[in-house]
Structures are given as structure tokens and as C-alpha cells.
Amino acid sequence: MTTAPHAVPPLRRDLGLGTVPRVAEAAVAAERRGVDRILVPETAQDPFPPLAVAASRTETVEVATGVAVAFARTPMTLASSAWTLQQLSGGRAVIGLGSQVKAHITRRFSMPWSSPAARMREFVTAVRTIWHSWQTGEELDFRGEFYTHTLMNPAFDPGPLEHGAPRVLVAAVGARMAATAGAVGDGVICHPFSTVPYVTERLAPGVLAARAAAEADGMPWTGPSARPFERVGTVFTVTGRTEEEYRHSLAGIRARLAFYGSTPAYRPVLEHHGWGALQGELDTLARQGRWPEMGRLIDDEVLNAFAVVAEDPAEAGRRIRERCTGVYHRVSVSLADGADPALALDVLDGVRADG
Questions:
Q1: Distance of CA 56 to CAs 6, 15, 49, 85, Å?
Q2: Residue 56 has what DSSP assignment?
Q3: Which of 14, 194, 206, 249 could serve as a FRET partner for 314 with CA atoms 20 to 30 Å apart?
Q4: CA dist., res. 86 & res. 90, Å (int)
Q5: Is the omega angle on the peptide bond into residue 67 within 30 degrees of 0, that is, cis?
Q6: Model-level pTM?
Q7: Phi/psi of residue 202, each to 5°?
Q8: Strand pairing class (142-143; 148-149)
């Protein structure tokens, strides 16, 4: 996923916001510091309401779901929420979608699960079809394997938007979902539990081939007026402004890597580096509830493959820029739980410096 050095643009900088009560304040601060896009994940909250609040307090920064769980919704409910955010933000909405894993979809959301890559491809296509109907007034007629949308009465049609439909980015861990992003998305979001070799060697070929096929087929989201396809990354970052903050960051990121590494869905990333056995060890400890022990299995080699480690935030930003330029078009940082949100802005300042 690299580009010729003379053609590589500087990295754009995104800021993840996780605390809903302070989202407006954080969004304003991010915009003042020159951040390009703010992200709200779907963890303990629906991301759309806080993004609407953030949009109401800002003027230029993009507002994005980072990510919303697609399969917890239908294409119609997602289309409606995204259309509203696009309207409220004056065209600054970006919709990041992820599949989540089977257990959460079936047991937490009580929604169907099957063929996630094929389902995501159809989900995004259905959303685009709904948006096209609203924007043009054409009859809604989508019939797929997983979703059917054939009814749109005038009373439920929100009508066209001045800025058109928002962009859709698809989050991917595996090669099949990455190819889906290339086929139907405006960009691919690489999971933070990724390494540069994994992204460039395992995911990139399928993304690029699928995108080229979509362009050859004349898909409307790939036309001359479309914005360039985005490659988006999030980088685990160990840093701090004090020794105490650094130690907290180091322990927190080791624990986060251990958590992700214990999940079978992420085993291919570890296997790509010859660390498949580590996933089994972490999974065993997780099933036994021995969470405090798991982080100790993340040695320095694994840590440095997944995370940027620097005692100074500005240096962390410079290392992110060196690692990610030419691999991603835009990056955000993932800090340890409980980290001061301002620390992320300090790191992002380092990404921009001399960029």
C-alpha cells in the first residue's frame, strides 16, 4: 500500500473521542489544534448523538463514527442516522462501519450473523441505494440475499442533501473484509491490532484489486467526482509527559494488546509474524479470567511491532509519521485506558511537525 516517495502526501490526523460528557469540549479543542477528523467509537454508547453534539460546536473538523457496528442495525436505520448527521454537520460526516464478532452480534444485539464479508458488502450497497433514492427521488428497490428494501413513502423520505451522501469506510482485520472495503467503500479502516507488514503484505493486495475492479465497473462512488480512496490506521501509542504517565501507558497498552491477542478473530495477525502460539496462551488465560497476567506475555518484540513507544509525545508523533507515511493516508492514536485526552493531541502535533 505504498506510493512513490515523491507522491506521498502528509498524514492527516484524526482524534478519537471516548468520553461522551466532554465530547463538545474535546471537539472544539481538536478543531483549534488543527485536527482533521474526530472519531467516536461504538463501545459503551451510540456514536451518532455525541457526534451530532460535536458537529453543532464546530465548523470545519469532520465527524466520524470510528466505528459504528453495522450488523447491530439494518441498512435503513444506519442510512437514516448517517443522513441526519450529514445534514446537521453541513456535509462533514464520515461513516466508519465494522462488523464486530459473532458473539456480540447474536448475543448482545440479538441480530443475525452469517458470511460477514458478503453481508457487509450487501449492507453498504443497500445503504448507498437508500441514499440514492433520497437524493434523487427514484423509487427504492433493493433486493439482496440478506436485506430487502422496497418501500419508501414520501412521509419517511428525508429528501436530498445539499452536500450529498456521506462517505463510507469499512473496518477490516482479515483479507476478505479488506477486499469488501475496496469493493464498496470509500476507504478501509485497518484495525489498531495490525502491523505495517500485515497491512502491506496481507491486506493491501485485496484492497487494491477490489478497488480497481470497482473503478473498472464504473461504480458511482469511484467516479471522477469521488474523493480518493482512504487508507486509515490507528496506532497503539506508549508515551507520557511524566514518568508516571509513561508507566501507566506502557502497562495499559500491553494489556490492550493482550486483550485483542486473546481473540481468535485476530489470530491471523499474530500468525503473520509467527506468533500464533501466543494467541492460544492468551486465550487460555482469558477463559480462566486471569486478565492481570496476560499483559506480561506481550514482550518488547510484540509490543514494538504493534505500538509506537517513545517517552516524549512529540517523539511518538514523529515515529508514527515515519512508520505510517505511505502506508496510511490518515492516522489516529490509541492510548491506554484512562489517559488524558490532551496527550493524544500532543502526539498528533508531533505527527504534523515537519510533515
A1: 38, 17, 11, 10
A2: H
A3: 194
A4: 6
A5: yes
A6: 0.93
A7: -100, -40
A8: antiparallel
According to DSSP, the residues that pair with 149 across neighbouring strands are: 142
CA distance 112 to 181: 21
Are 339 and 231 in contact, with CB atoms under 8 Å apart? no
The crossing angle, in degrees rounded to 10, of helices 341-352 and 23-32 is 20
Distance CA 64, CA 85 (A): 9
For residues 96 and 188, give the distance between their C-alpha atoms in angstroms, rounded to a whole number: 9
Cis omega before residue 69 (within 30°)?
no
- Successive 10-residue mean pLDDT values, the chain, 355 residues: 56 86 90 96 93 97 97 98 98 97 96 98 98 98 98 97 97 96 98 96 96 95 90 97 96 97 94 97 96 96 98 96 96 92 94 70
Q: Is 22 helix (H, G, I), strand (E, B) or coil?
A: helix
Contact status, residue 134 vs residue 156, Cβ threshold 8 Å: no
The predicted pLDDT at position 6 comes to 44
Strand partners, 333: 235
Q: What is the distance between the alpha carbons of residues 164 and 134, in angstroms, rounded to a whole number?
A: 10
Within the chain, residue ranges assigned H as helices are: 23-32, 48-57, 75-88, 102-103, 116-136, 175-184, 196-198, 204-216, 243-261, 267-272, 276-287, 291-294, 300-306, 313-324, 341-352
Beta pairing partners, 16: 39
With the CA atoms of 128, 66, 325 and 242 taken in that order, what torsion angle do they form, in degrees rounded to the nearest 10? 170
